[in-house]
Amino acid sequence: MTEHDPDEPADAELLFEDLAADLVSERRHEPLLARLFAAEPGVWHDLDDLAEDLPLVRDRLAELDGLPIHVSWIDLPASIHGDGYCTITFYCERGHLYRLALYDRGRFARTRGEPGPPRPPGRLLN
Q: Which helix (H) or strand (E) holds 55?
């Protein structure tokens, strides 16, 4: 978990940013990412539902006083970083909070002993 300066107030925006960053960067949150990637891409999913029976994530959500957070992912075809990348978007309508993360879904699958995601159809629009 990202540490906060105790002299600064921990407002919802800062807690939201830290939660999004931690969920995509800390290994202990991989079960949540596995659930997210098993869910339909390009569709908003309720983070609270994805975190069912994941106490570490539920505790972090509680810090946000029940703000509804939605999350979605979509493959990023022809990423400059290579195949297997996607974007993950976290969004909270109340407060218009959002965070976008670039994520190597292929590496995630390989570390779990799964085959990497197939190369998505499509191309970048220029």
A: helix 55-63
The pTM of the whole model exceeds 0.85: no
Of the candidates 33, 35, 10, the one whose C-alpha atom is nearest the C-alpha of residue 22 is: 33
The SS3 of residue 121 is coil
Task: Spell out the domain ranges in the chain.
Answer: 12-111
CB 16 within 8 A of CB 97: yes
For the record, the structure tokens of 42 come out as: 């390009």
Q: What is the pLDDT of residues 13-34, one digit of tens each?
A: 899 999 999 999 999 999 999 9
Contact 103, 111 (CB under 8 A): no
Q: How far apart are CA 95 and CA 98, in angstroms?
A: 9
| 45-46 and 85-92 beta bridge pairing | unpaired
